[in-house]
User: Fold this.
Amino acid sequence: MRKSLAFALAIAITVAAVSYTVVAQPRSRLDVVRARGKLICGVSGATPGFSFPDPASGRMVGFDAEFCQAVAAFVDVPDVEYVNLTSANRIPNVMSGAVDVVFRTTTVTVTRDDQVDFGPVTFYDGQRLLVRTGSRIRGLDDLNGARICVHAGTTSERNISDQLRQRNLRFQLITFQEAKQAFDGMAAGRCDVFTTDASQLTAFRATAPNPNDFQVVGREFSDEPLAPIYQENDSKWADVVNYTVWGMILAEELGITSAIARNPARLSEIAGRDPVAKGLIELKGGAMGRVLRLVGNYGEVYDRYFGPRSRTAITRDNTRNALARAGGSMTSRPFR
Amino acid sequence: MRPHSPPPFWRDERKLAVAVQVLFVAALAVAVLAADAALAASFRRQNIRLDWGFFRQPAGFQLTALTWTLDLETLSLKRYDPGDSAGEAMIAGLFNTVKVAVLGITVATLLGVLVGVIRLSRNWLVNRLALAYVELLRNTPLLVQLFFWYFVVILQLPNGSPEQPPLRLFGDAIVLTNSGLAFGGTLVERFGRLVVDGGFQLTPEFAALVIGLAMYTSAFIAEIIRGGILAVSRGQMEAARSLGLSYGQGLRHVVLPQALRIVIPPLGNQFLNLTKNSSLALGIGFAEFLTAANTVSSQTFRSLEAFTAVTLGYLMLSLLISGVLNVIRARLALPGH
Assistant:
């Protein structure tokens, strides 16, 4: 009697354990997000210009944060939950499925693409140097013996090491967990140089209490195309993120702003005139319309945080962030 | 009288005990195999492949605190260079963890014993000051304390610019800036700042880590020592006093040796805590074991393998410390204990 009870228990444990592995069926993240009613978006939360809490309301705002809102509007879920991620845990969080999509100034690299998939580039950036005004540093060649503050676990750390070793210069790397801490270390005088993507250098400098004590110098010495990341092998979700970004870029090319998107008469007039605009507006039952009404097109989002009237102004003219037909590299796809 | 027949199988106590143990081992084996199968299936589903060879690939990064490491081929000490392998980078980090642990444990124990004895003083003010020290340090998170020491105290030291000249002692033999405490180096001017070249330098990250860890752990050790002393019966101190020993002598020769036996297990706990808490150096950029592994994992994207190695590393270090403490306890134990 006791023997058969123990035997039955052993079988029950085995069956329970094995069935756990069989039950998990792959579902697209699109269905998961719709069922949840909320998009879980990974951002930095501490990068001026890209994702930071609004000083007045405390809500998460920024270039990256608005793309999260755009994706949520595309799939028609009302809510976005922002998760603050570090550069070390952004990829593991995507791989494990803890977040749906990450907009966190992530450079597209081939080795990262082995583990996650990248969406379209939202910002073309490059690495430069932030130095004290008055130090005689003008470029990489002046950095012999320098102490360099850098954000741990980023391509910036790797690039500066590679560049200085190629030039056979001595240097000391002081790494920090967050880019903001690295800037604080630089401001306190712990190091002579802070290096990361030029957009972040401009943003940190602009939000410092004494911006004129710092200067961004040097030519761009690395190519840093920044793009969103999401889990591999999920084509439906990839389409959602990709077409959100491409749709915003195409809307800027066609001149469809947030104000125009709120005016149904003008929208249908534009759709009647231009078959490409019609494809954009009618995609997936008006998904792009929701996006444009909420955040606007690519140019409007860019101007809100990096436009000439914002504190962290970064010009688009003559850079790769301009539209393709204005000489830059921002392109879309045919919405037919 | 009935003949004495052996009881049936299911009522024989010894056989039942054996059967239960066999069944338990079998159930455990089944559970472990099932968990392993579930893990393998989960890896397959997410296209994760474990690859342990990356430990031999060149590390390609240089962190200030990584100086000495072990050559994995010849097992000899050598200076760390970015061309060395990732495994050797992590070993350099492990050496730093051991340095921090040894120094931290020493300072924490000395401070802790001092504060613990002070807590027993009959002077009301001194007693309450020690109480404030202990309560403040025990009840705030360690990471917050480390940030405090690093960002609020050490980085505010003079930065070597003309407005904040470095603190010099004994000529230039000891120089204090927010880049560290340097012994026997030379001051040179670089990029508008005075920095020290050469000599022996204590980086601010190392100093903040050791100070923060030692003070935090000393608060816990103080309470343990106080408890140990109070656990020794009052009769011992009274007997010492009646023999003519002063309070201090009684403490040193009679009470503390007995208290020591009592406090060694909880003291060992605190030593292990300090060793593992040193991993919080990740927050202030000191390149110890976890920080080096973190950099390796973000450069090579092999986080599962890197952090398994970290877990095993801390496990070995902790078992070593526990082993040493067990030997000490066995040596000090009274016969029969």
